């Protein structure tokens, strides 16, 4: 899942991004509304965690722009105000969910994951295919009943492949969904991660390389 965090309190923004990355999400961070508009015009995000009171361009205007573009991106709006009227107003302009500050990080994670599931064809909370069982919420993976310990990027790649339900996923798509924009697209990071993932999942191999196209399970 790829997430954009838009928050002008830099320490909070960076802390949220770090936490989301630990949950195997690819995260980009910006600190004002103008930069947010630039990013959503370039990258495809599953979820935008959007502070409402932003400098340069207000969070409401960023949210309206996402709606105007008809993007499948879901918006989780953050605000220091807990007033019901503010929450209603935020939802009316197009936000998909609303979370007042201060918030419990576990709740933020749960809401981001719930919104991420709504950006595509509905899938069960636990993904199963080819003897693999993947639980995104618990961050657990089992192969034929055996638990498999994965690093965050390995988990993210496996989740993308599992969600594709047998369709081929290109290296570019994996790079877009599992890594942030600071990753050099000309590195072999995808190939190396897939190789490590194959080894950890064990025999027989379940990740198939489709020459010239990408990977599938």
From TrEMBL:
Residues 124-217 bind DNA. Pfam families: Response_reg, Trans_reg_C. GO terms for cellular component: cytosol; protein-DNA complex. CDD domains: REC_OmpR_CusR-like, trans_reg_C. It comes from the Bacteria. One of its GO terms (molecular function) is phosphorelay response regulator activity. Residues 2-116 form the Response regulatory domain. GO terms for biological process: regulation of DNA-templated transcription. The modification 4-aspartylphosphate is found at residue 51. Keywords: DNA-binding, Phosphoprotein, Transcription, Transcription regulation, Two-component regulatory system. Residues 124-217 form the OmpR/PhoB-type domain. The keyword Repeat does not apply. Member of the two-component regulatory system CutS/CutR, involved in the regulation of copper metabolism. CutR suppresses a defective melC1 gene, encoding a putative copper-transfer gene, probably by altering copper metabolism. PANTHER family: REGULATOR OF RPOS (PTHR48111), TRANSCRIPTIONAL REGULATORY PROTEIN CUTR (PTHR48111:SF36). This is Transcriptional regulatory protein CutR.
